[in-house]
Amino acid sequence: MPPPDALQQPIELDLFEGPFDLLLTLVLRDEVDLLEVPLVEVVTAALGDGASERWDTDTAGELIVLLAAMAELKARRLLGEPGEEEPDPDTLEAREALAARIVAYAPFQRAAGWLAARATECAGPRYRRVPLAGAPPAPPPHEDAARLREAMLPLLKAPPAPSLTHLTSRRISMPAALARLQAAMTRARSISFDAFTAGLEPLEEAISLMAALELARRGEVTLAQAEPFGDIAITGTGGRAR
Q1: Is pTM beyond 0.90 here?
Q2: CA 14, CA 199: separation in Å to the nearest integer?
């Protein structure tokens, strides 16, 4: 089983993403010997057909220039030519600018990956929940006939008849009550209301009280009550109207 290719292994750090970014930064910081770096594999992994990342035009141009400089420097060292004691200021500035751009682009690369993953998860048809204007309404949901019958049965039952036990068909005439009280006053000058209404129904007692009040209004009797809710004394005045 062949050993895994280090340039194809996924590496994610806080400031770097991918093996090429990490390797390029280490080379720029002289933390890796350039003679031990297989530039052919680096170029193939970064710009070849099987590269895992596609650069934009500006970044790819800068990357090609940098790789070409690294190839030239490695060739000089392999041929035994002395290296430049003082590096070119423009090259150093280009290295620093490229490293800064790689570090600055790292969050955007992660964001692009997250957006691509979300687009893949959300791919597919979308159904509209709100009906279109002018479209017929959606059919009502299916109802169970047995449940509908059970709900309607209480509405079909006749309501119970109201109780009429508190009502009575007995009628009492006010003129008859007046005549009865006047007849009682002819037999005695003063009578007790409780004695006069003894044995009568509550409705007859109420009519008898109204008859007493009517005679008092006419001036035929006077009413006296010693205490609240006590007996009423009905006394004739002798002035019965004719």
Answers
A1: no
A2: 108
Residue 4: how many CB atoms within 10 A of its CB?
8
Tokens 């129904």 -> residue? 201
Burial 175-214 (b: 16+ CB within 10 A, else e): eebbebbeeebeeeeebebeebbeeeeeeebebbeebbee
- Taking the C-alpha atoms of residue 231 and residue 225, their distance in angstroms, rounded to an integer, is 6
If phi > 0 it is left, if psi is from -120 to 50 it is alpha, else beta; for residue 172 that is beta
Q: How far apart, in Å, are the Cα atoms of 99 and each of 45, 86, 105, 215?
A: 19, 20, 10, 122
Please tell me whether residue 224 adopts helix, strand or coil conformation: strand
Indicate the residue type of 228: P
Q: Which amino acid is at 37?
A: V
Please give the sequence-ordered ranges of beta strands (E in DSSP) within 70-220, or none if there are none.
Answer: 190-192
Q: For residue 232, give every residue at least 6 positions away whose Cβ sits within 8 Å of its Cβ, in sequence order, or none.
A: 192, 193, 194, 209, 212, 223, 224, 225
Distance CA 176, CA 218 (A): 17
Q: Which two tokens stand for residue 206?
A: 């109420």
Tens of pLDDT, residues 113-165? 899 999 888 888 777 777 777 878 777 888 888 998 999 998 888 888 888 88
Report the candidate in 201, 204, 181 with the shortest Cα–Cα distance to residue 191.
181
